[in-house]
Amino acid sequence: MRSATIFNFLIEANIMASIAILLMIPLRKLLRKQMGNTAICFGWLLIALRLLIPLTLPNPLIHEIRPTYLEDTAIRPIAGQIKVRIVDAISDIGLSLFRRGDRQGFKQMQKIAAGVDYNGYPEILALILMIGMVVFFCWFVFRNIRFRMILRKNRIAPISGTLQEMYLTLCKERKVKPIPVYFTDPVPGACLVGVFRPYIVLPVMTAPQDVVTVLTHEICHFKNRDHIWNILRLLCCIIHWFNPLVWIAASMSRSDSELRCDDRVTSLMNDKERKDYAGVLVLAAARKSIPGIGVMATGMTMNGKRLKNRIVAIIQRTKPLRWLTATFIILASMCLTVAFCTGEWNPGAVQAGMFDETVSVHDVPVHDERQMPEDIQGLERGIWTIAGYNDYDEISQFRDITEEHLWASAGTMLKVIYADSNRLDRHCTFAEDGTLLELQDLNVPWLGENLPESRKYVRDDVALQEVSDRLMAFLEKANPGMGQSVDHFSVMWESGQNGQIWMQIDGIPKDEKTGEWITFVVRLEPEWQLQYFACVSNG
Fold first, then answer.
1. Cα separation of 73 and 351, whole Å?
2. Which parts of 117-262 are beta strand (E)?
3. What is the pLDDT of residues 21-38, one digit of tens each?
4. Following DSSP, what letter does each residue of 384-430 receive, concatenated?
């Protein structure tokens, strides 16, 4: 699996879910009475779905935020914005070090920026994320196995006789299918345990007058499917272990599930019975009977200020406003749908160039429709950056512009030269309409023709597709629409020296009589750089 696939999902899911969590925190505090606990739990369910489902829906507007300098089209716009901002921040740090005279620090920042952009850092980070998931998964499995072993060891017997009959009556009243109930000792408090074969744990020391209340509470947990909720919380915490908001949301949703259970328990009670139920919760709190967040079991209470608010809510029970609850559910469902709309409407348009035959998606814009941009220097910066050079601010002081004729019929060319006798010898050439005709770094070994004999290195389809994606991204930045004239890419030669590998790739046009012939020379290793680009139009 490519790291881009992992980061697309994790970044999009965490951004959307984190926004929703930050909205839910004040909402549950301010509008709990008006909306009710069921609506709040529904909101947490939608957040869990966004965190767990790797679904991407097309959005016709999302391409507007695709970074101009993003080479890898497998990275969707939101993740691309994060990546480019990180690279820019590292580059800015390097530039500040350069201005202070720290050349070594500047080179190190450039190396780190290049590593984040297209070297090994994304793969290393993806590995760290996967290791974290495995560690938390193993930890939760260990905790649950240990918890279940303790309960099994301390189990005495299933309930029977009059208590069993009373329990069956409760299940019938609450319209719940009976599940096993076991006396256990010692155990801090009653709880619903398990997922696929759930059962209720009942402490032997439960007071006779409290048995009905305790069993009713656990029955209502089962009817609310809170044992399924436990799985969703654990999965969210395992996959998104690095996001503290997810852990906060898991804790809050657990508390809200308890409040929702209280609503169901007290729905058939009078005032006196609700007070008695509140008293049972206070006694359970003294025994600290709530299981940890990593344990797939429901407790009966919570501690501290939250318990106080819970008791008040039980005694002063108020009915939620149905219109407000319905409005929240509808709006929240619509927001969930929008939160999945993070994919581009036509991502294939940027990836038409392949190493095999492809189908044309759009026509190439006519040259007469192109215009030289007002900010030509900004265009240059973007072109050099996407070509793999992160030192534009440093080299721009050596910038010189000339006009010349490269070919007799081509008209006036704008040639931008970056020349410094000590270090730099680069140039890029634009046509009158702003089309990039040529880009070249002259200070490269392959121009000296001293490389060993060209050879073909073994590259799989995925690696070739990554090369194709980067070349197409460069074309879309330099000459928007030109990439759609490419029928396929052809590798002309590949050679290496001193740990560096270069490849010449030609873009073969769909129409060889009027199309634009494109040539690239890229350095594939150790870091990607497009060191030569030229296009010649037959039209």
1. 7
2. 155-158, 181-184, 191-193, 199-203
3. 999 999 998 999 899 999
4. HHHTT---HHHHGGGEEEEEE-SSTTS--EEEEEEEETTTEEEEEEE
Distance CA 291, CA 298 (A): 7
Tokens 């992160």 correspond to 390
CA distance 380 to 335: 40
Please answer whether residues 293 and 237 qualify as being in contact, where contact means their C-beta atoms are separated by less than 8 angstroms: yes
Contact 517, 504 (CB under 8 A): no
Q: 122 in a domain, yes or no?
A: no
- Asked whether the predicted pLDDT for residue 223 surpasses 60, the reply is yes
Domain assignment of residue 466, given as a range: 348-537
Judge whether 433 and 412 are in contact, CB under 8 Å.
Answer: no
Strands of 424-430's sheet, edge to edge? 399-404, 413-420, 424-430, 436-441, 529-537, 516-525, 500-509, 486-497
pLDDT single digits (tens) 328-347: 999 999 999 999 999 887 65
CA distance 76 to 390: 22
The answer as to whether 377 is a domain residue is yes
Lookup result for tokens 């359970």 = 284
CA dihedral sign, ordered 154, 155, 157, 158:
positive
Please give the pLDDT value at position 346: 61
Q: Look-up: residue for tokens 């032997």?
A: 204
Residue 341's pLDDT is what?
93
List, for residues 412-456, the tens digit of each pLDDT value.
677 888 887 666 788 888 887 788 888 988 888 777 656 655 555
pLDDT tens digits, 511-539: 766 677 888 999 888 888 999 998 876 54
How far is it, in rounded angstroms, from Cα 46 to Cα 253?
Answer: 12
| 456-474 tens-digit pLDDT | 555 666 677 788 888 888 8
Task: Round the CA-based radius of gyration of the chain to a whole number and report it.
Answer: 32
Exposure class string for 45-68: b at 16+ Cβ within 10 A, else e:
ebbbbbbeeeebeebeebbeebbb
User: Average pLDDT for residues 166-191, to the nearest whole number?
Assistant: 90
Q: Does residue 163 form part of some domain?
A: no
Distance CA 401, CA 417 (A): 6
Comparing 378 with 321, which gets the higher pLDDT? 321
Total number of domains constituting the chain: 1
Specify if 357 maps to a domain. Answer: yes
pLDDT at residue number 366: 47
Residue 401 is which amino acid? I
Contacts of 115 (CB under 8 A, 6+ apart): 121
Token look-up 């797939």 returns 296
- The answer, as to whether pTM is greater than 0.70, is no
